[in-house]
Inverse folding.
C-alpha cells in the first residue's frame, strides 16, 4: 500500500489574502498525480505560504520524481501545447486576469518540482 503524506506551512498573516477558488487545488492534485502518485514508497506534497517584499507566495512542492526543465517548458501554462490538460493554462489565465502575473514553475530532475506564484 502506498503511503502518502502532506504538510502545510503557513504564515498567519496570509489569512487576510484572498485568492480565487480552485486556484491551488489543481496544482496540489498535479503534485500528487504526477509527482508522488506512482512512487511505491509514496512521498510528500508541501504547501507553503509566505509574504516577501510586498508579494504573496504560494508554493507547492513534492518529493516525487522531478521534471526536466525542457519538459517543464512544454507544459500548458506556457501556452505551448493546448491539446494537453487545461488546468495549468486556466490557472495562468486567471492569475494574469486577477493579478497581472504568471504562474511560475521550477523543476528539478530526480528531486522535486516547485510550482508557485506571487
Amino acid at each position: 500500500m502506498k503511503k502518502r503524506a502532506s504538510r502545510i506551512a503557513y504564515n498567519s498573516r496570509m489569512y487576510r489574502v484572498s485568492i480565487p477558488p480552485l486556484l491551488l487545488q489543481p496544482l496540489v492534485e498535479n503534485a500528487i498525480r504526477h509527482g508522488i502518485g506512482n512512487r511505491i514508497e509514496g512521498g510528500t506534497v508541501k504547501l507553503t505560504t509566505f509574504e516577501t517584499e510586498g508579494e504573496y507566495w504560494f508554493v507547492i512542492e513534492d518529493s516525487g520524481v522531478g521534471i526536466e526543465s525542457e519538459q517543464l517548458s512544454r507544459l500548458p501554462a506556457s501556452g505551448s501545447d493546448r491539446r494537453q490538460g487545461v488546468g495549468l493554462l486556466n490557472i495562468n489565465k486567471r492569475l494574469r486576469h486577477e493579478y497581472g502575473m504568471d504562474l511560475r514553475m521550477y523543476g528539478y530532475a530526480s528531486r522535486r518540482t516547485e510550482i508557485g506564484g506571487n
